[in-house]
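hey
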């Protein structure tokens, strides 16, 4: 069973049952003590791509938009039994060609890491058909969707569990904002919380 550790802001870590370590958008909080097998970066803003926090195993794979989104084609990668599909992510200040979200399969669990985004057609046209287990949505409302829009995106995507992240600027977490996110199967994680997937 995979274990998720929420570091705060848009950063979290997943440890698969085979002990492979995955970091998503490293920047915030703690929990960077384990060497990485895989790092997923949704875009190149400083609060999503701080690789200085991470030590890397010899064969560590770093996936970022420039490596998985080419000529408007969203690529697919695998690392052992873990698969990663890049998906569209964009908002007022994040161009389509510079940002991605990720749909991951880890230990049989489908995980949607939305990255910094607003509503996308892909959510309705594709993600809604994926039977996603865990979906992460930004709720800050600064270029990204706010809690109300994120709640609607969560309804569209229809994940078994939806988790709000990326809240107030400069803060790892904001309970009041998190409570504004409404979704079936909602899970609110505070920085330092762990979850068995």
């Amino acid at each position: 069973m995979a274990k998720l550790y929420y570091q705060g802001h848009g950063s979290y870590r997943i440890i698969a049952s085979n002990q492979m370590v995955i970091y998503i958008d490293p920047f915030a909080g703690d929990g960077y003590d384990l060497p990485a097998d895989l790092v997923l970066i949704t875009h190149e803003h400083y609060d999503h791509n701080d690789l200085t926090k991470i030590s890397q195993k010899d064969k560590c794979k770093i996936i970022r938009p420039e490596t998985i989104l080419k000529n408007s084609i969203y690529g697919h990668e695998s690392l052992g039994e873990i698969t990663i599909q890049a998906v569209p992510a964009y908002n007022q200040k994040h161009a389509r060609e510079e940002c991605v979200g990720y749909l991951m399969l880890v230990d049989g669990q489908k995980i949607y890491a939305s990255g910094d985004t607003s509503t996308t057609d892909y959510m309705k046209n594709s993600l809604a058909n994926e039977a996603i287990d865990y979906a992460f949505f930004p709720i800050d409302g600064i270029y990204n969707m706010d809690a109300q829009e994120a709640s609607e995106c969560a309804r569209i995507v229809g994940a078994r569990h939806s988790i709000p992240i990326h809240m107030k600027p400069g803060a790892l977490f904001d309970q009041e904002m998190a409570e504004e996110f409404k979704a079936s199967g909602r899970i609110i994680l505070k920085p330092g919380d762990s979850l068995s997937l």
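The longest strand covers residues 56-63. Residues 3-190 form a domain with the Metallo-beta-lactamase; Chain A fold (CATH 3.60.15.10).
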